[in-house]
């Protein structure tokens, strides 16, 4: 027989029999009453509970359900002992912490009011996750109400009892009001029916059915709220520690994750712990020659070194003032936004943010470390390395630094990164240092254009709209004023659009295009330390700071998974990931490649995103550029990824692919699921991928992965690219779910992702959900499964149908411009032209010449043509989503303001399924808003399904 007592022993009790339920309660009342995040409760029949000593005191409050909650506690020690809430009927809720011995060691079967769960309170494995007790209370009230209705014989009295019951439920907040039913009107009608004999039984039955439907709809809403909780519970039950690193759906495929991770670790160790013997004399000679090619470069290089020396002087002069309120803020925010910290350290750092006294003390410690930076060393016991498997299957190796260490290194890394970017940008912008790809218009031709086109308001002045100006530069982030920084994925998509656009223009202008793409193999882990220090010295970094950077690189590290007795090794090669200091060192090295490529190819453009490199242009320039890249890799101890290196030569006309010379790399040019086709010059979906690869990728990434890796639609890709994407998604679903047509047999319930999920929910939870539930936003109670066909359908009609036709139109417009130029030229007198041209020599050189030929007019299109500039910008443009026509009934069901805040995709989903959802749930809200576990769902989405691009 279980017994219990308060802390001081003044109150004792016992109970008999078995508990009705054991529960954790997260409601606000329990948090306030206990002073903790929740209470642990044993619920027993009231008559099975007995006080055996003392008389507890009582405090009564009104609970969330609107009824009284008497709380009983010891008047001497204040211990909370039990509660007897009216809403739960004849039960006593014992606080399990007051039970004696093993009686309090009980398994929890349910967690209630989980919508109020504190972040630190992890869900109990196997316990039902209930948002509140509303469903139980509602169903009990509903059952009592229906019993009362059943005892009445008159229809008007039945309807009146139902009306009063629904009014009480609404007043208590147990159900939300339905705007489609006016209880006030029904009340007036029933009042009239008391005397008006013309009110028919049919009308009374109609009102009664309306009220019954109101109750049934809310039962359905509570059922779906419960389903949502059970789905969360299922998600928790499969999220054991060994599975949390993967979001892969289970379709019966074995995973070799552990074996693969071990293999990747062995490869990483082979790089990290073996120093590369960089020939520093050869590398230094190469860099010395590079930065002394011309006097203007020598002067700019000297200025770069001087700016670095000045930066170091300012850093040293700060002494104990490096860390203050401002710097502490951006250092902490930067760490929180990075992938470096564990969950525990992230929480500690957030706690630091809210405590000014602690921040001040930490700043003092960090400032002292900056003063003694020359003596800084890693802990010889070793820094823990954590191997994390990303969703794309690759592993990365993260430092688990002590927090103050992480803050110090981040501060130094950011300071040096900011300086380096500014210094290199200034070097690059120095006149005559960085070569341009296009040849300038010769002086004589420039004068002729000024003379013959003078005074033509619709023709731009020479060189005002050169295409080179819109192709970016070394330090160009590609951002418009007011834009936020773009992600690497967005930048890559823009690069693909740029390449596709230039292929269209070059081919239309009768030019071949050679494209080379490559990526350094294991760039971060393989970057030799001697290469880094040699480059830093060349850029003017002092021996003092070079020595510090060398020490940061040569970290004593050990693997976290190897346990307490893990062996410690010194990193002899490579840099740690996700670190500003690593970015600073990598960019310093790769800048030398950028500059060498620019100088030796006479300004050919290299597009580099970190270590991912694209070059295109003539075969000769690409051959020269590739030779430069190979020589640089050899000198620096780097290598290129064989899998990601390729070359394609696209002829000026669609024909058989042109032969690739042996001086250029072999292999296809692929990105994601796209492959550049040498015949058409278009990016096509790579059809050589196996079904297993498609399935595995869909399992891991879902819609977002494919949408990103099939290339973002733009005018340069044309509507054919959208159709190709639609066909690809259709094929993926066909392979995954075994059906290719909508005309699947009636017994086939797994022909697509929708019906598969419907069947799984029905089998596991016994609920036959409508299609709309699968796709509706979570804010309306749906699962928010993404549908790629809807996204593509929204832009399909706004994208240019044929990207090639833009250049055909350009040639027509160009001829029309030439004809207008002739007419305008003949209208203007010779003296007027001479005056407008502002060129004295024009009087003698061109006065008696006829208007320039069409060949001369078009000779410098890429430097002077505003028409070509407009075509270029138009081809780069991404389509805008076309919103669906809204149905008045659908808009009113949600509210016009709420409808306006939805995305075009969400509006399309709701319009598609509204005819099924609205009658079933008397509106668009599948679940009452206060019953949605939005916090828990958001947590799962952020932690488990975050895509790594």
Which labels suit this protein?
single chain, 949 residues, alpha+beta, Metal Binding Protein, Guanine Nucleotide Exchange Factor, Chain A, eight-stranded mixed beta sheet, four-stranded mixed beta sheet, 34 helices, 49% helix, disordered C terminus
Short description:
With 949 residues, the chain is α+β, with helices and mostly antiparallel strands.
| Low-confidence blocks of residues | 238-256, 457-485, 689-700, 740-750, 939-949
Fraction of residues in H or I helices: 40-55%
Strand content: 5-15%
Number of strands: 22
Overall average residue pLDDT: 80
Spatial order of the strands forming the largest sheet: 6-7-8-9-4-3-10-11
Class by helix and strand content?
A: alpha+beta
Spatial separation of the terminal alpha carbons:
59 Å
The main β sheet shows up as: 8 strands, mixed
Q: Counting H and I runs of at least 4 residues, what is the number of helices?
A: 34
Please compute the radius of gyration using only Cα atoms: 36 Å
Globally, the shape reads globular
């Amino acid at each position: 027989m279980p017994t219990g007592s308060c802390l001081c022993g003044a109150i004792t009790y016992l109970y008999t029999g078995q508990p009705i339920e054991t529960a954790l309660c997260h409601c606000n009342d329990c948090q306030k009453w206990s002073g903790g995040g929740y209470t642990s409760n044993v619920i027993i029949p009231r008559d099975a509970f007995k006080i055996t000593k003392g008389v507890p005191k009582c405090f009564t409050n009104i609970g969330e359900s609107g009824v009284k909650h008497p709380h009983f506690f010891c008047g001497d020690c204040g211990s909370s002992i039990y509660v007897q809430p009216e809403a739960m009927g004849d039960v006593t809720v014992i606080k399990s912490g007051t039970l004696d011995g093993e009686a309090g060691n009980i398994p929890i079967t349910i967690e209630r009011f989980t919508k109020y769960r504190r972040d630190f309170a992890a869900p109990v494995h196997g316990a039902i996750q209930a948002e509140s007790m509303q469903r139980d209370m509602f169903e009990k009230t509903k059952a009592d109400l229906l019993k009362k209705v059943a005892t009445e014989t008159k229809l008007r009295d039945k309807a009146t009892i139902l009306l009063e019951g629904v009014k009480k439920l609404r007043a208590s907040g147990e159900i939300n009001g339905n705007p489609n039913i006016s209880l006030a009107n029904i009340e007036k009608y029933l009042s009239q029916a008391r005397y008006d004999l013309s009110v028919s039984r049919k009308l009374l039955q109609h009102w009664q059915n309306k009220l019954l439907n109101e109750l049934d709809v809310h039962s359905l809403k509570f059922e779906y709220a419960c389903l949502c909780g059970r789905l969360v519970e299922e998600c928790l039950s499969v999220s054991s520690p060994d599975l949390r690193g993967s979001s892969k759906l289970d379709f019966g495929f074995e995973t070799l994750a552990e074996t693969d991770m071990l293999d990747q670790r062995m490869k990483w160790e082979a790089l990290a712990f073996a120093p590369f013997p960089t020939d520093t004399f050869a590398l230094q000679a190469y860099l010395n020659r590079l930065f002394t090619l011309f006097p203007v470069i020598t002067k700019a290089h000297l200025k770069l070194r001087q700016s670095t020396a000045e930066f170091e002087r300012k850093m040293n002069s700060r002494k104990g003032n490096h860390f203050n309120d401002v710097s502490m803020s951006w250092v902490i925010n930067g760490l929180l936004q990075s992938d470096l910290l564990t969950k525990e350290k992230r929480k500690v750092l957030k706690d630091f943010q809210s405590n000014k006294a602690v921040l001040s003390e930490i700043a003092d410690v960090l400032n002292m470390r900056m003063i003694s930076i020359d003596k800084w060393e890693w802990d010889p016991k070793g820094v823990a390395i954590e191997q994390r498997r990303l969703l794309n299957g690759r592993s990365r190796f993260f430092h688990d630094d002590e927090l103050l260490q992480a803050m110090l290194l981040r501060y130094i890394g950011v300071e040096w990164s900011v300086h380096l970017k500014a210094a290199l940008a200034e070097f690059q912008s120095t006149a005559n240092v960085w070569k341009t790809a296009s040849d300038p218009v010769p002086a004589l031709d420039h004068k002729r254009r000024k003379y013959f086109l003078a005074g033509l308001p619709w023709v731009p002045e020479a060189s005002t709209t050169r295409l080179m100006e819109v192709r970016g530069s070394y330090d160009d982030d590609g951002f418009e004023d007011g834009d936020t920084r773009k992600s690497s994925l967005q930048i890559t998509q823009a690069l693909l659009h740029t390449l596709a656009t230039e292929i269209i223009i070059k081919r239309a202008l009768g030019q071949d295009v050679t494209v080379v793409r490559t990526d350094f193999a294991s760039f971060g882990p393989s970057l030799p330390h001697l290469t880094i220090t040699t480059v830093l010295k060349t850029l003017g970094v002092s021996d003092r700071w070079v020595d510090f950077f060398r020490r940061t690189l040569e970290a004593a590290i050990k693997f976290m998974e190897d346990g307490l007795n893990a062996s410690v090794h010194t990193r002899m090669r490579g840099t740690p990931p996700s670190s500003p200091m690593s970015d600073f060192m990598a960019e310093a090295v790769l800048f030398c490649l950028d500059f060498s490529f620019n100088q030796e190819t006479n300004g050919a453009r290299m597009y580099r995103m970190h270590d991912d490199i694209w070059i295109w242009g003539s075969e000769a320039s690409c051959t020269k550029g590739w030779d430069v890249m190979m020589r640089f890799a050899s000198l620096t101890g780097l290598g290129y990824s064989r899998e990601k290196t390729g070359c394609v030569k696209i002829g000026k006309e669609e024909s058989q692919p042109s032969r690739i010379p042996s001086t250029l790399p072999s292999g296809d040019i692929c990105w994601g699921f796209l492959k550049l086709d040498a015949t058409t010059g278009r990016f096509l979906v790579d059809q050589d991928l196996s079904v297993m690869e498609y399935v595995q990728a869909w399992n891991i990434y879902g819609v977002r992965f494919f949408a990103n890796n099939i290339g973002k639609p733009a005018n340069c890709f044309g509507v054919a690219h959208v159709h190709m994407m639609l066909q690809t998604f259709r094929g993926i679903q066909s392979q995954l779910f075994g059906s290719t047509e909508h005309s699947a047999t009636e017994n086939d319930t797994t022909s697509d992702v929708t019906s598969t999920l419907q069947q799984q929910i029905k089998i596991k939870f016994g609920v036959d959900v409508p299609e709309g539930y699968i796709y509706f936003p979570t804010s309306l109670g749906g699962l928010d499964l993404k549908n790629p066909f809807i996204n593509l359908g929204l832009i399909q009609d706004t994208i240019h149908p044929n990207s090639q036709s833009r250049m055909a139109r350009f040639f027509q417009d160009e001829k029309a411009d030439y004809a207008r130029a002739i007419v305008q030229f003949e209208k203007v007198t010779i003296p007027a032209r001479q005056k407008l041209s502002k060129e004295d020599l024009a009087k003698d050189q061109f006065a008696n010449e006829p208007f320039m030929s069409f060949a001369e007019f078009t000779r410098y299109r890429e430097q002077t043509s505003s028409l070509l500039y407009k075509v270029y910008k138009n081809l780069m443009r991404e389509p805008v989503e076309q919103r669906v026509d809204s149905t008045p009934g659908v808009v009113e069901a949600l509210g016009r303001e709420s409808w306006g805040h939805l995305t075009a995709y969400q509006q399309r989903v709701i319009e598609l399924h509204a005819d099924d959802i609205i009658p079933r749930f008397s509106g668009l809200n599948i679940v009452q808003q206060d019953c949605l576990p939005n916090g828990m769902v958001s947590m799962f989405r952020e932690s488990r399904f975050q895509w790594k691009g």
